[in-house]
Specification:
Length: 384
């Protein structure tokens, strides 16, 4: 009875730990560590089967790792054809409630008490070779079923010399896999909710809420570490005229097109956040790159916006702690400086960014290239 109680407590603990996970990585790690402890293993891994690529990709390794293993590996993948037992149920459905059973394999290649997967070849030489290579004596493999389809697998191993997993262990691993599946499903739902909460539904960019949170964090890094924080605020010119002339559906397409331009330019700055603040207002938030790099990207952004089929370019303001703008102790101050620079750009009808703290000359529309349809096409042709 004591063993049953311990396993029940392990199941409850695993479910609670996964429920408390905030991100996918935290959920994966909780699954692997919880299963490893519950089964008395020395090592555990959680992997996903990528059907479109025909491979098993390891998401997390936990427990006693060897020199070649990382906790969150970037490229630890294995072709599915190397695992014949997987192909037996990879494209099956278990909508009716049944699920594939876990099974046991041993480093000596002898039958494990857990038996092979249903309908599979008895043993997988790839897994046996991996056990020997890493000094492990046995493993139990439990397929994970999510939304009625095989999603991946939970793998728990013991070191050489430790007791070999038995049929009861394999049955318990099947139960743990079901708990892990429920935890993964919950994490996916939470991430979808977070995505909706922090994304602009039209453009797919971040929204104002996401910017506010990230900017607060960035300014704190500036205060404690001296990191350069830069904010580019843009107002898309001519949107009202497009809406009035062509309708809001065309105006939405303009917003989407500019959102794509903003995202493309933002990719030039490592880890920059591209966002739509609302209406025709957008921004880029960069932490780390120098002010000159940000200004160059803002200039590129203005140039690309100027040659969109519709609209009238953007008014763009930049504020960076890398420029002489005085102490920045709050996100609000940096936002106000960037916003003020954007208003200056709009008032001056500048075709380039106006940068807070710099005395550069504003390039006015009269000095800018012609904006006829012919010239727009010509300018687009000049760009790669």
């Amino acid at each position: 009875m004591g063993g049953d109680d311990a396993r029940l407590r392990a199941v409850v603990s695993l479910a609670q730990t996964m429920a408390a996970a905030y991100t996918s990585r935290e959920s994966w790690r909780a699954a692997a560590l919880g299963a490893c402890e519950a089964l008395g293993g020395s090592f555990a891994a959680l992997s996903v089967w990528e059907r479109d690529r025909g491979r098993l990709r390891v998401l997390v390794n936990a427990g006693r790792l060897d020199e070649a293993e990382e906790e969150f590996p970037e490229g630890e993948v294995y072709p599915v054809h190397q695992f014949p037992e997987i192909t037996e149920f990879l494209h099956e459905r278990w909508a009716g409630g049944g699920e594939p059973d876990a099974w046991v394999e041993t480093a000596d290649g002898l039958p494990g008490a857990g038996g092979p997967a249903r309908g599979a070849r008895p043993y997988c030489h790839q897994r046996v070779a991996a056990l020997r290579r890493r000094g492990r004596g046995c493993c139990v493999v439990a397929p994970i079923v999510l939304h009625g389809r095989a999603w991946g697998e939970l793998y728990v191993a013991r070191q050489t010399g430790e007791p070999v997993f038995d049929r009861d262990d394999a049955n318990f691993a099947t139960v743990l896999a079901a708990v892990v599946a429920a935890g993964i499903a919950q994490t996916e739902r939470l991430e979808e909710v977070r995505k909706l909460a922090f994304s602009d539904p039209l453009t797919g960019l971040a929204n104002r809420r996401a910017v506010d949170i990230r900017l607060d964090e960035a300014v704190e890094r500036h205060r404690t570490e001296g990191a350069v924080v830069s904010l580019v605020v843009c107002d898309l010119n001519g949107l009202k005229a497009v809406n009035d002339t062509h309708g809001h559906a065309v105006g939405d397409r303009l917003l989407e097109r500019f959102g794509s331009v903003l995202s493309r330019c933002g990719a030039m700055l490592p880890d920059a956040l591209a966002a739509r603040l609302g209406g025709d207002e957008f921004c880029l938030l960069a932490v780390g790159p120098g002010a000159d790099d940000v200004v160059r990207v803002a200039t590129e952004l203005c140039e690309r916006a100027a040659v969109l089929e519709l609209g009238d370019g953007v008014a763009c303001g930049v504020a960076s702690t890398g420029d002489p703008i005085g102490p920045v102790r709050s996100a609000r101050r940096l936002f106000r400086l960037a916003d003020a620079a954007q208003y200056r750009a709009k008032a001056a009808r500048s075709v380039g960014p106006v940068v807070a703290g710099r005395d550069g000359e504003v390039i006015r529309l009269a000095d800018s290239p012609p904006k006829s349809a012919h010239d727009r096409r010509r300018l687009r042709g000049q760009r790669p």
